[in-house]
Specification:
By secondary structure, the chain is an alpha/beta fold. It folds into two domains: 124 residues, Rossmann fold (3-Layer(aba) Sandwich); 119 residues, Rossmann fold (3-Layer(aba) Sandwich). Helix content is 43%, strand content 15%. It has ten helices and nine strands. A five-stranded mixed beta sheet has the order 6-5-7-9-8. A four-stranded parallel beta sheet has the order 2-1-3-4, with helices on both faces. A hairpin with a 2-residue loop joins strand 8 and strand 9. Helix 3 packs parallel to helix 4 and helix 5 packs across helix 10. The longest helix is centred in the C-terminal third of the chain and has 19 residues. The radius of gyration is 17 Å and the shape is globular.
């Protein structure tokens, strides 16, 4: 039995694609090389414009165009299940363009929907979560729009915390994770930990790491009384599930 190939869009975070592949392999039940799932990643970062800049109106070119082209290349090389390890790329103005390019024979796994499903099924008592992400993700209300369907309230950082601590910890060229992914700069770690603590003290029962850079800095399971939910890990699990489901449907 040969599982369908997982295709990962790289270039949407310095280590985002690599981290997702690692988590797919970490979560796959395999006792030999041959039992691991086939995975393909195409990383062409210079083609994909920054998603937050587009959402903030700093560029007119929708990055979904380039992402759709990369997905087409992945599909042409044999991928059937597609994952985009970028939360901001799931903002409706970007994602809607990408979705139009997906053929019926393939599955585009929606990262944000999967996080909602994960929380509602695994942690049904959670009704309030905090989200750490880029300013694009926050302003586009990527998580509130989806999690509302699961009756989950979303707490987002205050404007000051977002502008002074969260977004710079991702983007700042002197210490941000995009510039310093391995190892992550201590200032970025401290800032993001502080922001997660803020969300916990605001009543978040869980804090979603809603940017695929952030799990590189926050690698613990709880902060104070709040559970940490790594959206990249959730996406990895969903890709494995869809690969097996598609294989069973064609067996």
């Amino acid at each position: 039995m040969q599982n369908k190939m997982i295709g990962i869009v790289g270039g949407v975070g310095s280590y985002a694609g690599i981290d997702l592949i690692k988590k797919v392999y970490d979560l796959t039940e395999a006792k030999s090389d041959q039992e691991h799932l086939p995975v393909s990643m195409l990383s062409v970062p210079h083609k994909i414009l920054d998603r937050t800049k587009y959402l903030l109106g700093e560029t007119d070119v929708n990055p979904g165009i380039a992402i759709a082209e990369i997905i087409a290349s992945l599909i042409a090389s044999g991928s059937s299940i597609i994952g985009i390890p970028c939360n901001t790329a799931h903002a409706r103005p970007i994602l809607s363009l990408i979705e139009k390019s997906i053929p019926e024979s393939c599955v585009l796994v929606n990262l944000i929907e999967e996080v909602g499903l994960h929380i509602s099924t695994k942690y049904p008592k959670i009704t309030k979560v905090g989200v750490l992400g880029t300013t694009g993700t926050i302003l586009a209300k990527v998580y509130p729009e989806v999690l509302a369907k699961y009756n989950i309230e979303v707490i987002q950082p205050s404007e000051d915390i977002q502008d002074l601590f969260v977004h710079p910890s991702i983007y700042d060229t002197s210490y941000g994770i995009k510039a310093f992914s391995n190892p992550v700069n201590e200032k970025a770690k401290e800032n993001l930990s502080m922001a997660a603590t803020y969300l916990s003290r605001k009543g978040a029962q869980a804090v979603i790491l809603g940017c695929t850079e952030i799990p590189l800095a926050i690698q613990y399971e709880k902060i104070e009384d709040s559970l940490i939910i790594d959206a990249t890990t959730v996406l990895a699990s969903a890709l494995i599930r869809e690969s097996k489901k598609m294989d069973e449907a064609h067996s």
